[in-house]
Design brief:
The complex is a heterodimer of chains A (446) and B (482).
Chain A: E1 2-6, H1 10-21, E2 25-30, H2 33-42, E3 46-49, H3 55-60, E4 68-71, H4 76-89, E5 93-97, H5 112-115, E6 119-121, H6 123-136, E7 142-146, E8 151-157, H7 169-175, E9 181-188, E10 191-193, E11 206-211, H8 216-222, E12 232-236, H9 240-249, E13 254-259, H10 262-271, E14 276-279, H11 285-290, E15 298-301, H12 306-318, E16 323-327, H13 334-339, E17 344-346, H14 348-360, E18 365-370, E19 377-382, E20 403-410, E21 413-416, E22 428-433, H15 438-444
Chain B: H1 3-22, H2 25-31, H3 36-56, H4 67-85, H5 87-92, H6 98-109, H7 125-140, H8 142-149, H9 154-164, H10 177-201, H11 206-217, H12 235-248, H13 252-259, H14 265-268, H15 270-293, H16 298-313, H17 330-338, H18 353-371, E1 379-381, E2 384-386, H19 388-414, H20 419-430, H21 451-465, H22 469-472, H23 477-480
Antiparallel strand pairs in B: 1-2
Classes of the chains: A alpha/beta (446), B mainly alpha (482).
Chain lengths: 446, 482
């Protein structure tokens, strides 16, 4: 596919790199030559220096031949304008990054596809929803539901005293007769592996498990976690994300929101009816103590500043908060912060890039997610009649080593894949794959 | 530094090189040469050795080629290819000394075309074909060829591409580097095919046509005849070669656009305009001089001066006449031409037009900047501002080039060449042209150069072909520091 990306910021760059690795032809437009040179040296793309709202620049990028135009600069106006222009110049599909949730509201009676924007992406909203999800399912570091929860992939960090520590996968399989869950990946020392039967679990491993709803509790128990209901959370930072998280949670639990800017606090207090808005500096430990951080179940740090978010989250963990979630928009920090003991990191730019690449792959793959900080994809395929995957039981397929079939959804039923399982046409299959296995995996579903 | 991937890719290059060695065999069979065993053994041996390297080096699929790996791959790849390319000559015994054989193959791959052979026609056809084939492979670049063939290189491919492809600006013809490489090679093959057809029409044998087409489009200069193109004594052939030398010296991105119907793009390109005007003026000058002083006919004066000047400028190095004998100052005039080169993005060598053009523009603007100290006066090329970063890179390149030229000339003079010949030899090797001046000039060759001198010149040829930085960087201690 020929894809033109306007804006080589973090979202654009990440997207360009990901899509170019998937053998799409990428043409990148940006005003900043240095940014372009950097992207050019890191990914196999063609770069064009100029403004994406200039028709001549768009023509130079040959948008008329593009299958997709993605506008992801940091300015909403630029994105909307250039998407419209690109569409009029002949781009088949357009995606624009926006920063106004109203546009996504289905009640608003404007058809954006009519003016030339096929898909809109609002990273702040996506990030907020992901955070809310993590708070509601308190034990997990990552969660992904398939087909409304018939199967879920859960990421868990193992504590020192978890029952599974030092046991191998085979030991665990012996203990449990039923197949309600399966361990699909293990993240240890910056590396993700697909574990084999005799791999043992160590403290601080991050484990990814695919489970059916019935298996949830067993999995949590094994990891030494329990799913408790949080009812008291504290949010640091009244940015768009902070406000949105508060909005989504304030009816379910007690929410405190700390923001240092006076004007913002007034606006927040005005729109958030049952949230307690506090004016103050979140780095001030006395303030946090005064507002009862010790009694808080979850702490969410979403200021503009990644360092502040990380430090305050660490502080909260230190004070005994059960879960700390930090917004970290510096991609480089992600592998590092996972090892220093934070529960979850949210990077809105990566989320946005993943969301777009999910949209691009929609035709073949139902859902796709890239787990942050670890190098792996989770994909959901619909099995086509006569595809190679249906020919043999899983163990005889010769499935690539870098990938693993997690589970299958057949109609209303869901099941965990084992060696003898035979996949049928129409099944929805959840596959976990390291980067090296994606292409080979795709062959099985063609 | 990831040595495994470096060695693995060099293995792949050797497989390619070995395979192409075998392409000479049909000609040795046809002409009944005694070089079949030599080509067969070295060809299969090289393929085998490359295959062993390829398969013993296990590389993680997601490994990316870093910038340092890329520089090392390109430089070592060229050296390894040249070493293995000597085997047919060594085994056959037509070039017994390794120094001479290495000089010859390095001269082939770098499309220099300087030769140590005094009697080219004594070589069997298979070896001659291989000798010309090294030109053809080196012209567009072995690395670019492997990029086109080997999809595995996709990710690190850009690094390799940048390390091998000549010129200050590396335009991509397509968003993907493998596709760009494919397109470049496609144009190259099309042009070669076209020249072969035209030469066949001029009553050349298929063998000669292929060898000359390889030598022309790669802007190399090896001819299977002792007298080079003069052997045929055919104005038609000379005109055909003039045209294709000129095309070989033109930016291939422009050919690509022209093949897509955009012929105008030639004349929208500042460098091409400069290239063609430079040729026009020098040819005009030489033609009139020859008509007036040597009383040649207008046609032959034009043909001889166009052939010689374009041959030198495009860094080809084919010879039809002894141009040094034209006039007392002809040697100086051609020394001047030796330092120019043709367009960036072509198969030619040397400093290249665009660098001089940018420096001249910048130099002139410097006066303007003196008068208006606060004005913002950027250098423009093709109606676009050229960043000062590029200007400084270009200045560094030209300065380094001239410095190496000076050091090289002195070194060669120490090794026994008279100064003018030394300068000519160094300039001709660095710019991958071929014939130098005086004792290394158009009517003589490099066989009498001191052995050490041959190594120095081989070194300079590779340095020139890889545009100095790619080559010299691996000698920097900082390059090897972790």
């Amino acid at each position: 596919m020929r894809i033109v990306i306007a804006g080589m910021g973090d979202v654009g760059y990440h997207l360009a790199k990901q899509l170019s690795n998937e053998e799409h032809d990428i043409i990148a437009i940006d005003m900043d030559q240095q940014r372009l040179s950097y992207s050019d040296s890191m990914a196999d793309i063609l770069t064009i220096n100029g403004s994406s709202t200039n028709i001549s620049t768009l023509k130079q990028a040959q948008v008329e031949k593009a299958d997709l135009f993605v506008a992801v600069t940091s300015f909403e106006e630029v994105n909307v304008t250039s998407a419209i222009l690109a569409k009029k110049l002949g781009a088949k599909k357009t995606i624009a990054r926006i920063s106004n949730s109203e546009y996504l509201d289905e009640k608003v009676d404007i058809k954006f596809s009519e003016i030339g924007i096929d898909f809109m992406i609002y990273p702040e909203e996506l990030a907020a929803r992901e955070m809310v999800n993590l708070i509601l399912r308190s034990a997990a570091t990552d969660i992904m539901d398939f087909e409304g929860g018939k199967l879920s992939v859960i990421g868990l960090r193992l504590d020192k005293d978890a029952p599974v520590i030092r046991k191998s996968i085979l030991d665990i399989a012996k203990e449990f007769e039923s197949f309600d869950f399966r361990i699909v990946a293990l993240h240890r020392n910056f590396r993700t592996i697909i574990p084999k039967g005799n791999d043992r679990f160590l403290p601080n491993d991050q484990v990814f498990v695919i489970t059916r709803p019935e298996g949830n509790n067993v999995v949590l128990k094994l990891a030494g976690k329990e799913d408790i209901n949080f009812n008291n959370i504290m949010i640091l930072g009244g940015s768009k994300i902070g406000r949105r998280v508060a909005e989504l949670l304030e009816d379910k639990m007690t929410v405190k929101l700390i923001e240092s800017d006076e004007e913002k606090t007034l606006q927040l207090a005005d729109s958030l009816t049952s949230t307690l808005v506090i004016k103050g500096d979140g780095r001030d430990i006395d303030l946090l103590a005064q507002e009862g951080i010790i009694d808080v179940d979850a702490f969410v740090a979403v200021t503009e500043d990644a360092e502040t978010n990380i430090i305050t989250c660490l502080m909260a963990k230190h004070l005994g908060v059960k879960k700390a979630i930090a917004l970290v928009d510096k991609v480089n920090y992600i592998p590092l912060t996972q090892t220093i003991g934070l529960d979850s990191l949210i990077n809105k730019k990566l989320i946005a890039a993943n969301n777009i690449s999910r949209y691009i792959r929609k035709s073949e793959v139902l859902a796709l997610s890239t787990l942050e900080g670890i190098d792996a994809d989770i994909m959901e395929y619909v099995v086509q009649p006569n595809s190679p995957i249906t020919k043999k039981p899983i163990k005889d397929l010769g499935f690539p080593k870098e990938a693993i079939i997690g589970g299958i959804i057949r109609g209303e039923e869901s099941m965990i894949a084992v060696g003898d399982t035979r996949i049928q046409k129409g099944d929805k299959v959840v596959v976990f794959s390291l980067p090296g296995g994606v292409k080979q995996t795709e062959k099985f579903f063609k | 530094m990831n040595f495994r991937i470096v060695i693995k890719i060099i293995g792949f290059l050797l497989i390619l090189v070995g395979f192409f060695m075998l392409t000479g065999i049909p000609f040795s069979v046809y002409y009944g040469g005694d070089d079949i065993p030599a080509l067969l053994i070295s060809g299969l041996g090289t393929v085998l050795f490359g295959t062993i390297l390829w398969f013993t080096m296990k590389v993680n699929q997601v490994t990316e080629i870093s910038k340092r790996d890329a520089y090392l791959i390109v430089t070592l790849g060229w050296v390894a290819s040249s070493i293995f390319a000597t085997f047919p000559f060594l085994i056959h015994g037509s070039i017994p000394s390794f120094t001479n054989a290495f000089f010859e193959t390095m001269s082939g791959f770098t499309t220099t075309g300087s030769s140590i052979l005094t009697n080219v026609e004594a070589l069997p056809h298979g070896l001659l074909f291989w000798r010309s084939m090294t030109h053809w492979l080196g012209g567009m670049g072995i690395i670019v060829l492997s990029l086109a063939i080997l999809p595995l290189l996709g990710i690190g491919g850009m690094q390799l591409y940048q390390a091998e492809v000549a010129g200050p600006s590396k335009e991509k013809l397509h968003p993907r580097v493998t596709e760009t490489a494919k397109r470049l090679w496609a144009i190259y093959v099309i042009l070669t095919f076209a020249e072969v057809c035209f030469l066949l029409l001029g009553d050349m044998s298929l063998f000669d046509a292929l060898c000359h087409a390889f030598g022309t489009l790669a802007t190399g200069g090896f001819s299977p005849k002792n007298a080079s193109v003069a052997h045929y004594n055919s104005p038609y052939i000379e005109y055909i070669i003039i045209v294709f030398m000129f095309l070989g010296g033109t930016n291939f991105a422009l050919h690509y656009l022209a093949l897509h119907g955009k012929f105008k793009s030639y004349f929208q390109d500042d460098e091409f305009k400069f290239y063609i005007s430079f040729i026009f003026i020098t040819v005009l000058f030489a033609t009139f001089y020859l008509v007036l002083s040597n009383s040649q006919s207008l046609e032959s004066a034009f043909r001889n001066s166009a052939f010689s000047i374009i041959s030198i400028l495009s860094s080809t190095g084919f010879v039809t006449v002894d141009y040094e004998a034209w006039a007392p100052f002809a040697t100086q005039f051609f020394l001047f031409l030796l330092l120019f080169g043709a367009c960036a993005g072509s198969t030619s060598g040397g400093v290249k037009m665009i660098r001089y053009q940018l420096l001249i523009k910048n130099g002139i603007l410097e006066f303007k900047r003196l008068i208006h100290p606060n004005a913002v006066i950027p250098v423009r090329h093709n109606n676009k501002t050229v960043s000062s970063e590029i200007i400084s890179k270009v200045s560094a390149f030209v300065l380094l080039y001239l410095a190496i030229f000076a050091i090289g000339s002195v070194t060669m003079a120490f090794l026994g060449l008279e100064l003018q010949s030394a300068m000519g030899a160094v300039a001709a090797c660095m710019a991958n042209i071929g014939p130098g001046l005086g004792t290394t000039g158009p009517v003589s060759n490099f066989s009498d150069v001191h052995d050490v001198g041959k190594w120095v010149l081989s070194f300079l040829m590779l340095l020139g072909r890889l545009e100095i930085f790619t080559f010299l960087i691996i000698f920097l201690p900082a390059f090897w520091k972790k």
